[in-house]
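Example S7 (structure tokens).
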């Protein structure tokens, strides 16, 4: 191909996936309290990561720097190849802006090359599912311009539906107040969250009880997806695979699903939602809110 596809660790695909599908991967740096810096590249298994969170280790993420993109992109440009970078939404991070600055910095040095950096409005396996479907289009033979057009036309059809088990992690991330977190925990209130059209994580309701919150993910899929046959859906979880599998079983009561990608959230996103998060990602009607 005349181009290379890039993504980053916020896509939450299995670590082996990137090499198997010829996708360049940019890892995020995550601080672990007093334990130093962790590179979110699969070197720490998910169970260890979430246990550290349960034990009180405070993880903090930092946005990808312009330097990271410059270093990652230039070898590809030197080979005479164009770049498609599908990365973390600008609604949750300044990383998109860093990628755009790197793109602009190369315009004069590599005038014949193009770096496509769309605002994906995607995160976690919603981004991963977008990458997965983009790879299918690439492997079907789409050239650079056609694939960029396909991404722009389809990226808002990728839906993100979340629920979390422990509101205190959303409090630490500034998504709910301390009072809301404490009251919600006492009453077993579980928030309903989605990613909107500009890529922000929006709290759009609440459900009482864990099982009800998981079933709510499936009901939201039924609300936004009329097509019964699905080649692939994706489910992420925060060290609660049994509940992720429960959601898949419930989805299959309503939809014919050929493949399901089930994977833990890595540190890039897991840091902000904590253990017990479950998220369902699917292709449906184009998002309008």
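Recovered sequence:
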């Amino acid at each position: 191909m005349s181009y290379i596809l890039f993504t980053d660790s916020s896509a939450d695909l299995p670590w082996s996936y990137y090499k198997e599908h010829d996708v360049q991967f940019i890892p995020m740096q995550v601080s672990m309290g007093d334990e130093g810096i962790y590179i979110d590249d699969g070197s720490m298994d998910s169970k260890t990561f979430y246990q550290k969170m349960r034990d009180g280790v405070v993880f903090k993420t930092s946005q990808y720097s312009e330097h990271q993109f410059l270093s990652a992109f230039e070898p590809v440009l030197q080979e005479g190849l164009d770049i498609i970078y599908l990365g973390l939404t600008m609604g949750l991070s300044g990383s998109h802006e860093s990628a755009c600055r790197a793109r602009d910095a190369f315009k004069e040095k590599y005038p014949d090359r193009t770096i496509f950096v769309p605002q994906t409005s995607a995160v976690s396996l919603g981004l991963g599912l977008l990458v997965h479907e983009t790879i299918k289009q690439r492997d079907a033979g789409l050239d650079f311009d056609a694939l960029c057009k396909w991404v722009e036309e389809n990226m808002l059809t990728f839906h993100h539906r979340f629920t979390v088990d422990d509101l205190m992690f959303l409090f630490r991330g500034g998504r709910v107040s301390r009072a809301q977190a404490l009251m919600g925990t006492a009453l077993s209130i579980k928030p309903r969250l989605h990613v909107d059209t500009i890529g922000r994580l929006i709290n759009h309701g609440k459900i009482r009880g864990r099982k009800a919150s998981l079933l709510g993910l499936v009901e939201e899929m039924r609300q936004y997806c009329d097509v019964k046959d699905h080649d692939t859906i994706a489910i992420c979880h925060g060290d609660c695979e049994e509940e992720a599998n429960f959601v898949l079983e419930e989805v299959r009561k309503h939809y014919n699903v050929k493949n399901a990608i089930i994977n833990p959230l890595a540190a890039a996103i897991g840091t902000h939602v904590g253990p017990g998060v479950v998220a369902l990602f699917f292709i449906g009607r184009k998002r309008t809110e």
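Notes on this example. The mean pLDDT is 90.
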